[in-house]
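Hello Y.,

Per our agreement to keep a running log of every chain we model this quarter, I'm adding this entry. I've kept the format consistent with earlier entries: sequence first, then predicted structure.
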Amino acid sequence: MEYKDYYKILGVDRKASEDEIKRAYRKLARKLHPDVNPGDESAEARFKDINEAYEVLGDPDKRSKYERLGSSWQQWQGAGRDPGGFDWSQWFSSGSADGARVDFRDLGDLLGGGSAGGFSDFFNSLFGNGMAGSGQPRGYSHPTRGQAIEQAVEISLEEAYRGTTRTLKRSGQHVKVKIPAGAYTGLTIRLAGQGVPIMGGAPGDLHLKITVKPHPRFTRQGDNLHTETPLNLYTATLGGETPIETLEGEVQLKIPAGTQGGQVFRLRGKGMPRLRKKGKHGDLYARLTIRIPEKLSAREKKLFQELSTLSKR
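Predicted structure for the entry above:
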């Protein structure tokens, strides 16, 4: 029988913490999930491997037994002995004599099979030897819910402002997901029952992690938006109106005479919608930058010189 290095499969150190193991598993699960790699047999095989590895390393009891086996296996190899002569029988499970609960997560339904044979012979020999009268492995205990899955979803600021939808493929079916107006980076949308199916229990959930892409014009802080708006010298000096871009379109902002560069004007209700608070919005803060003319005609230059003379009196 071939020894399986679960640490190598997950790409973690043998001293990795539970959190490090969980993070590594989730990262690989998102990358290798069959819904992300339809028809890719290599990705499917690796997906099975990482689920098996996490089944062991994510459970303290199973990990402890696996560590004891690994230590014995390494000593056997280190002594230069024939790997084929290793005595596996002392490690074969005859139920849960070592006190460990064996919770099998059935990957068959997810990956196209229909049995609990999603795990390797190595795993089954170590943690579940043979079938009980019920037709299930000795020591078998049904989990109540399958594994939850996380999936990243990226949207634009405009989509976050108006709300949007995404269509995901789950187990051969298309699922339409509504992303509400006011969505923000870090928001999690839970889809009940769209995670990993499991034999004898409810499917896990799918958690969509929202990321809002940076915008070239607006910076978001909570439900408020910030932007910089150029203002010509004449309007800043004499007063008037200047156009301001918002996510709803252009509006006119009244500018008082003598406005200075760097002044910030608040446009109430022109920011992001407040999540799940219908009709409520944050504000838009427009910081004005004075635009100095770069090219002057002879007449303009003369007038500026006259103005400069007058201002010195």
